[in-house]
Write a structure and sequence with these properties.
The complex is a heterodimer of chains A (111) and B (678).
Chain A: H1 2-5, H2 7-10, H3 14-34, H4 38-62, H5 68-98
Helix pairs in contact in A: 3-4, 4-5
Chain B: H1 4-23, H2 32-56, E1 62-71, E2 74-82, H3 84-107, H4 114-133, H5 137-155, H6 162-193, H7 198-206, H8 215-232, H9 241-244, H10 250-259, H11 264-272, H12 278-299, H13 305-326, H14 329-363, H15 385-399, H16 405-424, H17 428-452, H18 459-463, H19 470-481, H20 499-503, H21 520-553, H22 560-575, H23 580-651, H24 659-677
Antiparallel strand pairs in B: 1-2
The chains are: A mainly alpha (111), B mainly alpha (678).
GO molecular function (chain B): NADH dehydrogenase (ubiquinone) activity; NADH dehydrogenase activity
Transmembrane segments (chain B): 6-24, 33-51, 85-105, 117-135, 141-159, 180-198, 210-231, 252-274, 280-301, 308-330, 336-357, 386-407, 427-449, 470-490, 534-555, 659-677
Domain NADH:quinone oxidoreductase/Mrp antiporter transmembrane (chain B): 135-425
Chain lengths: 111, 678
């Protein structure tokens, strides 16, 4: 009986984590697609990455994949840090070239 | 003995050539003693060979052959033949050559290319001995060309002078014309008889084999080979090179262009005699007579001492050829021998005079006066006694005065032509012969008187003249001595009693009976019959020539200038060598230019027209193809490009340039794929 009423509230399981991760991904995508400021876009990208991390860890915890998922998550964090450094350098260059950090104003590749 | 000794004699000068050309400058005295020594050794060996041949086996002919190369079934041999003819020639060649070597020690002593000069002399002597000794036609031809090249090298020895290098070229090219005929003749014989050997060819002819089965071809082959002699012995019509060849050093002229090489043509005819038909011999006789007359007529008016001698050489060679042609074989060959001695002497004497003139002109710093022009000489008699008396001796010999060697041989030749005309009726031959004898005496005495007698043209210059050194006068004395009759016959009026006449016998003709020249026995009979008349006539002609010369140039009874005016055109013809050089220039050189002009016209108007019209046609085709290209092919290409362009510009609307739009596309497409495949 208990099992029927409370499973997803009482004991957080894999599904909970996946829902959180999906929310986070959606928020990240939202930020990436809709923000004008390139810094905000970058922050959206970080959200997406972290949603992926949550997924990895959740799968590592609830399936037989043991520690491999956590390992990859660690890698992702490190790579995200590196990526952030590179991305910020690009942003700085972009600013010095276009005098703006607003993505809708930068469209020199327009066909 | 008769097989090894000739080989040694042949190789000695070659050895000298090789040593001097490679080591010449390092040898003491630049190696002149070596060259002269080798030649004198060769002379000694040749003399001993001749004496033992004549004393031991005078009727034998020794031949030794070595296999040279084998081509297919043919084997070509190198062989040497020793018979009386070649033994005598060996002595003549080595004697003149060694005397010229000695003379050159004085004449060439200041030359910067002294050792090379001796090397070339060695090469020449080797090749000439090769011609004398060879037993087959191919090697005759090879040595023939070798003497040609050494003659070329020596004529052009002072190649810094343009005239000398031109003369060398001229000699070589004119000789080439004759050699071409000779080569054709040799090939006709080889194709038919498959051998080069003289003896085998004669044997085959005797056995009745004829080239291409026809007697006409036998005559042709003989005449073609005679073409080689026409070139080398400067016979009409190829006589033009010899006067120019006087650009070489004078001792060279003495050796090559007077005594030995030019006599090679005569030697060749003598060697080929058994296979020459009566027709061929008649042509040969006429060529000899014409040559000797033409050259003598030119020599009458020349002023260059060496040119007079050059024309005189051509004339005397004509005599020898004439003698062989009429069948006076022994007389012709004997004249070759005696002429070699006195003509070499004349040239060396002229060399001695030129050398003395040069010394004086050089000391007086005079570079304009021609050292060879007799008008610049005169009165040298007292200054150069040895040269004068030897020169006088040679002049008497060539003029055919009794007690000299020249009288013996010339008299026999004239008797031979006279006998021939009584047998065959060709009276022009003896007529030309006797006239030439008179002309020879005249121009030789004219030369002698102008050079050594009379008033000096320039007293100061002539008084400074000195006699040449002993090394130069000694060869003159030797040659003057052997120009005496005793060396050839003890009877001063009859060569027929002498050893030379006995040793050299006219070979038996091998040609078919109907083509045989006059039988030797009948001919001898006729000669014997007419000998007295011929002798008297020849002395008369010679004396009248001499008297005329003395009258004109010594007693001055007859003014030469008047005679020049009186004879006008004839004088011009003679003075300008009958305009042969101009004639050949007009015909061959201008002819060649005309041919090039015609070829040029043909090129410009026919070949170019063809090329141009074909170009015009291809241009037409090309412009049609061009139209097709620009309109059809390019149209297709452009249409493709335009459609791509239009598609591009349509699609480029999608490219907003805004990164977020692209991201939307990416995510959207991803979603679509996601939905489709999962």
């Amino acid at each position: 009986m208990e099992l029927m009423i409370t499973p997803w509230l009482a004991e957080p399981g894999l599904v909970h984590f996946l829902i959180v991760s999906a929310l986070l991904l959606s928020l990240g995508l939202m930020a990436v697609l809709s923000r004008r400021n390139v810094i905000m876009v970058l922050m959206g990208v970080e959200l997406i990455l972290n949603s992926a991390n949550i997924n990895l860890i959740a799968f590592s915890r609830y399936t037989s994949l043991s520690l491999e998922g956590q390992m990859i998550a660690l890698f992702v964090i490190i790579i995200a840090a590196a990526e952030a450094a590179v991305a910020l350098a690009i942003v700085l260059n972009m600013y010095s070239r276009f005098n703006t950090v607003h993505l809708d104003e930068i469209d020199s590749l327009k066909g | 003995m008769f097989t090894q000794l000739p080989l040694i004699i042949l190789v000695l000068p070659l050895l000298g050539f090789l040593l001097l050309i490679f080591l010449g400058k390092r040898l003491p005295r630049k190696g002149d003693w070596l060259a002269a020594g080798l030649l004198i050794t060769a002379l000694a060996l040749s003399l001993s060979l001749l004496i033992s041949k004549l004393a031991g086996q005078p009727d034998e002919s020794f031949t030794q052959t070595f296999r040279w190369l084998a081509i297919g079934t043919h084997t070509i041999h190198f062989g040497i033949t020793i018979d009386n003819l070649s033994a005598v020639m060996l002595v003549v060649v080595t004697l003149v050559s060694s005397l010229v070597h000695l003379f050159s020690i004085g004449y060439m002593k200041d030359d910067p290319r002294y050792s090379r000069y001796y090397a070339y002399l060695g090469l020449f002597s080797f090749s000439m001995l090769g011609i004398v000794l060879t037993s087959n036609l191919l090697f005759m031809y090879i040595f023939w060309e070798l003497v040609g090249i050494s003659s070329y090298l020596l004529i052009g020895f002072w190649y810094e002078k343009k005239s000398a290098s031109n003369a060398a070229n001229k000699a070589f090219i004119v000789n080439r014309v004759g050699d071409f005929g000779m080569f054709l003749g040799i090939m006709i014989l080889f194709v038919n008889f498959a051998t080069f050997s003289f003896k085998e060819i004669f044997d085959l002819v005797e056995a009745g084999q004829l080239p291409y089965g026809s007697t006409g071809w036998l005559t042709t082959a003989g005449l073609l080979i005679f073409c080689g002699a026409i070139g080398k012995s400067a016979q009409f019509p190829l006589q033009v090179w010899l006067p120019d060849a006087m650009e070489g050093p004078t001792p060279v002229s003495a050796l090559i262009h007077a005594a030995t090489m030019v006599a090679a043509g005569v030697y060749l005819v003598a060697r080929m005699f058994p296979m020459l038909t009566a027709d061929a011999l008649l042509v040969i006789a006429y060529i000899g007579a014409i040559t000797s007359f033409l050259a003598a007529s030119i020599a009458l008016t020349q002023f260059d001492i060496k040119r007079v001698l050059a024309f005189s050489t051509i004339s005397q060679l004509g005599y020898m050829i004439l003698a062989l042609g009429v069948g006076a074989y022994t007389a012709g060959f004997m004249h070759l021998v005696t002429h070699a001695a006195f003509k070499a002497g004349l040239f060396l004497g002229a060399g001695s005079v030129i050398y003395a003139m040069h010394q004086v002109l050089h000391a007086q710093n005079d570079h304009h006066t021609d050292a060879q022009d007799v008008r610049n000489m005169g009165g040298l008699k007292s200054k150069m006694p040895v040269t004068y008396y030897t020169f006088l001796m040679f002049t008497l010999a060539i003029s055919g005065i009794p007690l000299t060697s020249g009288f013996l041989s010339k008299d026999e030749i004239l008797a031979g032509t006279l006998a021939y005309s009584t047998l065959n009726g060709h009276w022009l031959l003896p007529l030309l012969g006797f006239v030439v004898a008179g002309m020879t005496a005249f121009y030789m005495f004219r030369l002698l008187l102008l050079t050594f007698h009379g008033n000096p043209s320039d007293r100061e210059r002539i008084s400074a003249i000195k006699e040449s050194p002993l090394v130069m006068t000694l060869p003159l004395i030797v040659l003057a001595t052997v120009s005496l009759f005793v060396f050839y016959s003890f009877n001063p009026f009859g060569a027929a009693d002498g050893w030379l006449y006995q040793a050299i016998e006219r070979p038996i003709s091998m040609v078919p009976n109907m083509l045989q020249p006059v039988d030797a026995g009948i001919f001898e009979e006729a000669v014997h019959h007419i000998h007295g008349t011929a002798m008297v006539l020849s002395i008369l002609f010679a004396l009248s020539g001499i008297l005329l010369a003395i009258g004109m140039y010594y007693w001055k009874k007859i003014k030469a200038e008047n005679l020049v005016q009186r004879t006008g055109v004839l004088y011009d013809l003679s003075f300008n060598s009958w305009y042969f050089d101009e004639l050949y220039d007009r015909i061959f050189v201008s002819g060649l230019f005309l041919l090039t002009r015609i070829s040029k016209w043909f090129d410009e108007h026919i070949i170019d027209a063809i090329v141009n019209s074909s170009a015009w046609v291809s241009r037409g085709i090309a412009s049609v193809a061009g139209l097709f290209d620009t309109n059809i092919v390019d149209g297709l290409v452009h249409a493709t490009a335009a459609s791509a362009d239009r598609a591009g510009s349509m699609l480029s609307k999608i490219q907003t340039g805004k990164i977020q739009t692209y991201l939307v596309y990416v995510i959207f497409s991803f979603l679509v794929l996601f939905i489709l495949f999962i």
